[in-house]
Each structure stands twice: as C-alpha cells, then as structure tokens.
Amino acid sequence: MNVVTLEHIKRFAFEQLWPLRDPITEHTALAHDFGMAGHDGKEFMEAYASRFCVDLDVFDWVEYFGPEAGGADPFGLIAYLFKRFVLGKPARELVDLPEITLGHLVRCANLGKWQPPN
C-alpha cells in the first residue's frame, strides 16, 4: 500500500480546484479556505475518493459543504455577503460547517475510509 502524503493531496487539490494566495498547510480547509460549497464539494470528494481509494459510504456532503445555492435564503445570502465583504469577517466565522482540512484528507486516504474530523 502506498502512503498518501500532504504533497499528494495538495497536488490533487490544485488539479481539481485552483491555487490559493495563502500558504497551503495541513490546516487548509476545503470550504473555508478554498471557498468550496454545495455540489462542488460533493464532486471534489467523489474525485478524491476515486483517486485515493477512500470509501465515502458514511460521508454526507451537505453536512460539510451546505446545500446547493438554489435553496439558499436570499436575505441570508445578502447578510452573509455584507458581513464577509463589507465588514471583512473571515468565512469560517460566518458559516457553521465542520472543517475538512487537507491533513484530514491525508489521514482518511491512508485509512481507506472516511472518518469525520474531530
């Protein structure tokens, strides 16, 4: 069995997503740092599971990435955008979603199955 490293996950994230301005570490989070949400998160996790042979049977993408934007409350969206871009609050302070970090993806890839983050 090959050991999956943070470098493997970082390369995969850059292939699937986009580069970040901030340094990428094991604490970099998919939703909060990459800005991944909704169905994009589901598709990323499916590609991750396929590439690294991770069983996602117990993974619920809505829990970690939120529902697809079509069901969003428009007033909540306006409030979020105001707080985020006018007041400058970080996304992780505004959205109550558990974080999936790159370090956690490394651990799950080496286990071969999804486990919720602590």
Question: In words, what does this structure look like?
Answer:
By secondary structure, the chain is mainly α. The chain has a domain of 78 residues: ACP-like (Non-ribosomal Peptide Synthetase Peptidyl Carrier Protein, Chain A), CATH 1.10.1200. Helix content is 49%, strand content 0%. The protein has 6 helices and no strands. Helix 1 packs across helix 6. It is globular and about 45 Å long. The mean pLDDT is 85.
Summarize the structure.
By secondary structure, the protein is mainly α. The protein has helices spanning 6-16, 38-52, 61-65, 74-86, 91-94, 102-111.
Question: What keywords describe this structure?
Answer:
Non-ribosomal Peptide Synthetase Peptidyl Carrier Protein, Chain A, 118 residues, 49% helix
